[in-house]
Amino acid sequence: MTNIDSQTKTILLVEDNPDAVELTRIALKKEAIDCNLVVMRDGAEALDYFSSESSITNVIPDFILLDLKLPKISGLEVLKQLREDRKTEKILYRSIF
User: Three-state SS for 34?
Assistant: First the structure.
């Protein structure tokens, strides 16, 4: 799959299971999805990624794959907070069970 606008897209994967992270990498490679995959290991880390201090250097992702059962802060809480923030409310999300 090639990006329509030829820019590499950024996918944020929020997943605490290393096996699931590796399977996601394999699937993206197998499907030839050209993207920058950013991995966060828990809900707090994901929210920190979007904090005002971090947002200066971090790219707002085009898509988020979000585990719902995360340590520290649940995926549902992460989703709720990101949906309430104007800079992240329009990002596409997909939850992982």
Answer: coil
